[in-house]
Specification:
The chain is mainly α. Helices cover 60% and strands 3% of the residues. The chain has a two-stranded antiparallel ribbon. Helix 5 packs antiparallel against helix 8 and helix 6 packs across helix 7. The chain is globular and about 50 Å long. The protein starts with a helix and ends in a 19-residue tail after the last helix. 37% of the residues are buried.
């Protein structure tokens, strides 16, 4: 049974991925989001950009192949929650997305994501600035105000775990109304 926090996290992500605001997810939402996020860190390498855009596309493909029984190319909030909080069906997709997003935040390849890159990427996704700052701080930044890319990737994976509560990712839902 998913925790209340997990359901809150997923509702927020759905609202952000619904880039056109029509109440359902469609392929164009993921293309728009992917391009917006890639533009957030222009100095990232082409490989990182391509991997992230591919991860957004595979995220969509996983959703549509698992859920779109009627073939209309649309995913409702209820359908989204059903798959995203099912680790057996969605873990590989989340893992790819987590690695790709963390790599985008580490354009110099030193294994760390600096606060400005983190903030740019999370803002491009649509999270609110106070929540982004709280999340970054919850990852316990080290010298130079940066967090390990693996810490962020692990935080993304935790965000989608149905049994998790009290995790850093819960800072993203604090005070949000979607």
């Amino acid at each position: 049974m998913p925790t209340t926090e997990a359901n809150d996290r997923v509702r927020l992500v759905f609202s952000l991925f619904d880039a056109d605001g029509n109440g359902v997810l469609e392929a164009d939402d993921f293309e728009l989001m992917g391009k917006r996020v890639i533009a957030a860190v222009p100095e990232a390498g082409d490989g990182a950009k391509s991997a992230l855009l591919g991860a957004f596309r595979r995220y969509w493909q996983t959703l549509v192949s698992e859920l779109d029984a009627d073939g209309d190319g649309r995913i409702s909030p209820e359908e989204f929650t059903a798959i995203v909080l099912d680790p057996q069906r969605f873990d590989a997709t989340v893992d790819e997305f987590a690695k790709a997003l963390a790599a985008m935040g580490d354009p110099d390849g030193d294994g760390f994501v600096e606060r400005p890159h983190f903030t740019s990427l999370m803002t491009a996704i649509g999270f609110e600035r106070p929540n982004i700052e709280a999340l970054f701080d919850a990852f316990r930044p080290v010298d130079g105000d940066r967090v390990a890319a693996t810490t962020w990737a692990d935080g993304i994976r935790d965000y989608y775990r149905p049994e998790k509560a009290g995790i850093p990712g819960d800072h993203l839902t604090a005070g949000t109304v979607r």
